[in-house]
Amino acid sequence: MTISFLTAFWGETECPMSNLTPPPPHMFWFIPTHGDGSYLGSETRQRPPEFGYFREVATAVDRLGFEGVLLPTGQSCEDSWITAAGLATATERLRFLVALRPGVTTPVFAARQTAALDRLSDGRLLLNLVVGGHPGELAADGVFLGHDERYAQGAEFVAIWRALVRGETVNHEGRYYRVENGRLDFPVVQEHLPLYFGGSSDAGLDVAAEHVDLYLSWGEPPALLAEKIATARARAAARGRTLRFGIRLHFIVRETESEAWTAAERLISQVSDAQIANAQKRFKEEMDSVGQARMAALHDGRRDRLEVAPNLWAGVGLVRRGAGTALVGDPQTIAARIREYQAVGVDTFIGSGYPHLEEAYRVAELLFPALGIDGRRRGVRTQIVNEFAVGSHGPAANATIRAAE
C-alpha cells in the first residue's frame, strides 16, 4: 500500500506522510432490543429483551468509551425512540442512533420526536433512515409500496423532515406527503442532525448521494465494500456533496486467534442444518433487500465457506438477517482488518457481539488499545495492592503510576 493511496483516503491532515497509521475509528455498539444470548439458534442462556438489561449494556459502553449505540427497529424490537429516551437519562456521553421510518410515521411527527429526544439527550441524538426490506413486516405496519417506491418516499420524507428541524415553516405537496404550515415550536439542540442510511440498491445509493451524511453497509469483504463506496462517493460528488462511510458488523475478539475462532464456532454450535435452511429460505423469499441478498451470497448457507475474507466470518448470517458477519481474531489482527476498511474510506464501525454486555467489555479492553482508543474515564488513581495490582505503596508506587500516565 503506497503513501499516495493512503493519503487519498485519509487526507494529509489525518494521515500525515510521516505517519501511515490512520486515526482511531469511531466505535459504536448495539443495544439488543430484540433479546440477547450466548448461542445462536438456541434458548440456552438466552436473555429476554428487558429494559433493565438494555440499561446495563448502555451504561457499560458509555463508561467504556464507545461513542454511541445503534438501536434497531422492526416488529421484533422494542421501540427505539422510547428505549433511547429511557437510556439517555442513564448515560452521560453516549449518542443514540434511532430510526426514522418513512411510511410508518409522518415527517412532521418524526421532526417533533427528533426535537424532543435531541433536547432530552442534550444533543446526543443521531438518526438512521430505514425504509425497510421485509414487505410482509411493512404490510403489517400499513406500508404497501414496492422496493424503489419506498426509497422515493424516503427521499421526500427527508426533505420535509430536514427543513422542519432547520426551523423552517414547511408547505409541501408531493407524491407521498402533503403538509400545510408545518413547523416545530420547540427547536433541536444540534445545529445539524447527522443522518445515517444504508441501502445497497441503485435507488438506495441515489438517496444516500442526495440526502444523508453517513452511508452504512453491512460487513462485506473490503474489496466488495470498496466498490460500493466508490459508487456512492461518485454519485454524491455528481450532486456536489461528500459522504462519510460506516460499517455494521459483529466482533469476536480474544487474546489469541485460536480462542477467537473457538468462540465463533461455539456461538453457532447449537444451530441445526434445518434452522439454517429455514432462515435462508425466509431471507430469499420474504425480503426484497439488495443488502440482505449480498449478505446471503457471501456464504449461501454453507458451514464450509464461512470465512468470506481474512478474519471476516459469516456464521452469524446463517440464521440472523441483516448484519451477518463478524471480525474474528486477536486484537492486533482485528485492528489490522479495521485499518483495511479505513483504507477504503470507512471511519465508523457499529459493532455488536453475543452476549452484548460481555463482548462490549472484550472489545473495549482488548481491541481499543490496539486501535489507539483511550476510553477510560479520568479519575483518582488508587494505590491498592491486591490480586490485580501486586506492587507496593509509597513513593515508588507513585512514581510508577506517573510513568504509566
From TrEMBL:
<dbReference type="InterPro" id="IPR019911">
    <property type="entry name" value="Alkanesulphonate_mOase_FMN-dep"/>
</dbReference>
<feature type="domain" description="Luciferase-like">
    <location>
        <begin position="28"/>
        <end position="348"/>
    </location>
</feature>
<dbReference type="InterPro" id="IPR050172">
    <property type="entry name" value="SsuD_RutA_monooxygenase"/>
</dbReference>
<keyword id="KW-0503">Monooxygenase</keyword>
<dbReference type="InterPro" id="IPR011251">
    <property type="entry name" value="Luciferase-like_dom"/>
</dbReference>
<dbReference type="GO" id="GO:0008726">
    <property type="term" value="F:alkanesulfonate monooxygenase activity"/>
</dbReference>
<dbReference type="InterPro" id="IPR036661">
    <property type="entry name" value="Luciferase-like_sf"/>
</dbReference>
<dbReference type="Pfam" id="PF00296">
    <property type="entry name" value="Bac_luciferase"/>
</dbReference>
<keyword id="KW-0560">Oxidoreductase</keyword>
<comment type="similarity">
    <text>Belongs to the SsuD family.</text>
</comment>
<protein>
    <recommendedName>
        <fullName>Alkanesulfonate monooxygenase</fullName>
        <ecNumber>1.14.14.5</ecNumber>
    </recommendedName>
</protein>
<dbReference type="GO" id="GO:0046306">
    <property type="term" value="P:alkanesulfonate catabolic process"/>
</dbReference>
<comment type="function">
    <text>Catalyzes the desulfonation of aliphatic sulfonates.</text>
</comment>
<keyword id="KW-0285">Flavoprotein</keyword>
<keyword id="KW-0288">FMN</keyword>
